[in-house]
Amino acid sequence: MDLTRGLCHEEFIAAITHLEEMVSHPSAAGVCRQILAVGLESLSPAQLAVYEGYIWPNLLERCATCPKMVPAGVGYCPVCAIEYDN
């Protein structure tokens, strides 16, 4: 399992930051904060289970206008961002 879903470091951090604010599960928000502070490698097995269940599935979202996948919180893929001037 690719724990970052193929995102580069900057995209991963941006997605985790967005998900920390948006996630509804309280433990998942804490896991996001730990990832931002110490890194993904610091997670315990229980925290990793929370990450895999609540955070990992939401790291990528569909672009707002096309079927391409983008990091959580980005909204548009690069092509649509240019087309819609975002």
Number of strands: 2
List the domain count as a whole number: 1
Percentage of residues in strands: 5-15%
Q: What would the principal axes of the Cα set say about the shape?
A: elongated
Explained architecture:
With 86 residues, this protein is mainly alpha-helical. The chain has one domain. The protein is 51% helix and 7% strand. The protein contains 4 helices and 2 strands. The protein has helices spanning 9-22, 26-38, 45-55, 78-83, and strands spanning 60-62, 69-71. A two-stranded antiparallel sheet has the order 1-2. Helix 1 (9-22) packs antiparallel against helix 2 (26-38). The longest helix has 14 residues, at 9-22. It is elongated and about 45 Å long.
Short description:
The chain is mainly alpha-helical and 86 residues long.
